[in-house]
# Entry
Amino acid sequence: MARTLDDVVAEGVAGRRVLVRSDLNVPLDGSTITDDGRIRASVPTIRALASAGARVVVTAHLGRPKGAPEDRYSLRPVATRLGELLDAPVAFASDTVGDSARATVDGLADGQVAVLENVRFNPGETSKDESERAAFADQLAALADVFVSDGFGVVHRKQASVYDVAQRLPHAMGGLVAAEVEVLKRLTETPERPYVVVLGGSKVSDKLGVIDNLLGKADQLLIGGGMVFTFLAAQGHQVGTSLLEADQLDTCRDYLRRAEETGVQILLPGDVVVDTAFPSGDRTPQPQVVASSAMPEDAMGLDIGPAAAADFAAALRGARTVFWNGPMGVFEVPEFCDGTRVVAQALTEVEGLSVVGGGDSAAAVRGLGFDEASFGHISTGGGASLEYLEGKALPGITVLED
Ligand code: ADP
Ligand code: MG
# Structure
């Protein structure tokens, strides 16, 4: 069992430097945060430590910089937002483990919070070379006395600030990671039935693995988003210019066959919304509803159709447990957000446990104006929750268990 945040606080953290790995990877438009959900989810652990008198040093990443500083991926606006949410000043170090980081940490008083610059500005963070990662983890660990792992969105990554640093400091599981794991346990161990899983989004090959495991667990799988076109193609339909992972066609065929054998229903949309070009700023979208078995050659599927959305909502109506990952369409464009909206609405009406997982899915339900409280749980981690549901061990969690 991993030690918990409560354990750390009970042992006394006043005056101690606590390194917290948070997930502050929020969507930005320039330097404007368009969805601060992950920052808000990180606040309780940070606040608990600060209230107990710890000198809290937050490390996190933003976007996918290539191991070197890039202005557009600076965590500075995120640190500012964190300060607003904590209602307390938050110091910001302009590097992660350099002079600024050391001076900032040295300058912290008990109960104060600092954020270090984007941990992925350092090549050691994500390096596959163990020694390179270890050297960077040594530098991070030197800034603190205790490590608290609270970045659920990254616990499936064997990275320096997630994994290696935990081997170098007394460590504990943060409150957010503990809460996420608790919900995932309910989904994997004793889901109330019917258990319906809705999958969509664009990271098709990333997500296909979870289906393997779910075929033995869920009663029904509803598939939308970009992922659906590989399934439709596997059934022999022509999918125009839609997102298609040609090397996964056999995998999809295998899933469809196994679903039939095991009595799990895979529901694919009977209609889809298409357009002749991927939506971009300089062109007005021209949505058109077509049967998914009759997609025009020059069109791209960008949302599930209205009949499919109604079918999905009906399937969700009887469910007692629902896990949803991945938007049903390109929800960022109003013309293609209806499928996602209808599914989100249906989830709010589920009597039982409804879980939304995935950065974009969570941003979608908030962006479409749904009240977070009307879902059972909104997970901050897409990849991490999927890997957990796949039955994989998450390195950032197992490392806390020794
Ligand atoms: P999450 O972050 O919730 O795990 P993903 O990152 O897999 O979800 O996918 C989110 C993205 O999928 C969104 O940006 C959305 O525009 C895109 N998407 C959804 N449906 C389609 C589609 N039919 N074609 C292309 N992209 C799609
Ligand atoms: Mg995403």
Remarks:
- Residues 27 and 35 are 6 Å apart (CA to CA).
- Residues 200-203, 225-226, 243, 301-302, 325-327, 329-330, 332, 358-361, 382 surround adenosine-5'-diphosphate (ligand 1) (CB under 6 Å).
